[in-house]
Amino acid sequence: MTDAQTNAAPLSGKVVLVVGASAGIGADTARVLAADGAALMLVARTEGPLAAFATELTSAGHDVAYATGDVSDARDVARFVDATVERFGRLDGAFNNAAMTQAGRLDEVSEPDFDRIMAVNVKGTWLCIREEVRVMRRQGAGSIVNVSSIGGMRGSSGMGAYQATKHAVIGLTRTAAHDFGPLGIRVNVIAPGPTETPMLAKTRLAIPGGVEARVAATPLRKVGTGTEVGATAAFLLSDRASHLSGVVLPVDGGFSA
Questions:
Q1: Please, how many CA atoms are within 13 Å of residue 248, restricted to the half-sphere of its CB?
Q2: Residues of the chain with pLDDT > 90: what percent?
Q3: pLDDT tens digits, residue range 11-20?
Q4: What is the C-alpha to C-alpha distance for residues 88 and 65, in angstroms, rounded to an integer?
Q5: Which of 80, 95, 126, 162 is catalytic?
Q6: What is the CATH number of domain 12-250?
Q7: Each residue of 191-209: pLDDT tens digit?
Q8: Which of 38, 40, 86, 227 is the most exposed place for a label (fewest CB within 10 A)?
Q9: What is the pLDDT of residue 2?
Q10: Is 162 a catalytic residue?
Q11: Radius of gyration for the chain, computed over Cα atoms and rounded to the nearest angstrom
Q12: Residue extents of the structural domains in the chain
């Protein structure tokens, strides 16, 4: 890497797809990636908030487009990946963040709810990887960052279905790193701890005291921010992480230490 490249915006010239981009970690990460020079395709299911967010970033001078889609629908995923290439000409990186949560003991979760969270969090991640790799393999390079959770690294009571999906995302990532590394494609996964998002607000309601107990057991004694997760994603998507693949990187204030 030359001195000029080191001093430039670390994602300058790169096109990154951000899936699950309209709020929370996805939106905060998109802001970081845009500030670091990336051109962005933003994806979420609901157009209104997504369009408003895209307008926020374009008004700030960033190169941004958006597309709606459901990650559990293979046609939708293929469509928004193709739309990225049509708009920007290439796909250098992807941040796969679309997910839903599901509170309750395993014996309390209904079969339809279990099927839906698996479809979004696990099948959706797999579909995104599959379609992103379809483009990246033609380019001979790419970087994919998936989002799991510290709940994907250990167990606890009350969110079993959600935690099962986040364990699966780590498994998908590790396998993808082996499958696609020979093609020049890096695949890593971030495992956030409690992070200030709309999803965390739902967790506080579903499991009273659960977040506070987790923070009390965290060495840094605080809830994380989406910007902190985004900064980690920006590093993994950049050439500065060129020899990292298959990594599970906790962003959890030391909880998993």
A1: 21
A2: 79
A3: 999 999 999 9
A4: 9
A5: 162
A6: 3.40.50.720
A7: 999 888 777 666 666 667 6
A8: 86
A9: 46
A10: yes
A11: 17
A12: 12-250
